[in-house]
Amino acid sequence: ENYEYLQILRYNEGDYYRSHHDFNVKELDRPQGVRLLTVFLYLSDVEEGGGTRFPELDSVRDNLGTESISGTGGEVVVKPKLGRAVIWPSVLDADPEQPDRRARHGADVVVKGIKFGANAWVHSRNYKLPYSKTCHDEEVISVTV
Predict the structure, then answer these.
(1) pLDDT digits (tens, 9 = 90+) for 11-28
(2) Is the alpha carbon torsion for 55, 91, 60, 7 positive or negative?
(3) Which of 116-138 are b and which e, b meaning 16 or more Cβ less than 10 Å from the residue's Cβ?
(4) Beta partners for 116?
C-alpha cells in the first residue's frame, strides 16, 4: 500500500538525469507522506556510462565490491548490470521526516548502449488510496494509518 507503481525508464546514448534527491518536503503534509526508500532495478547492461552516481556517499565505499561500484573522492557510482538492484533511504533513521543528504543521486550519461531501468518509491503512509482517489494538492481526504 505504501509504494508507488513501478516507473520504467529508458536512457538512450547521451541521456542522463541530473543530481537530485527523492525527498520532497511538500509530501510531509500529503496523505501518502514522504518517500522513505528508493528502489532502482537495472533491466539491462550498458556498454559504457549510465551509472547511478551518489556524490556524497563515500562512507560506504569500503563495504562494496569494486566490480559493482566506482568513483573518486567523496562519491560512489553504481554500475548498471542486468538484474542488479539498489535500495537506499531518502530520510534519516533518527528522524524519518528529515532528508538524508547522502541520498542525493543522479544518472550518468549513457555513452554507449541503452539503459533500461525501473524505479519505485516507498512512502511513510498509504500511497495507493490517495492515488486511487486522484488526490491533488487542493484536495483533502481522510486516511487512517
Answers:
(1) 999 999 999 999 999 999
(2) negative
(3) bbebbbbbbbbbebbeeeebeee
(4) 10
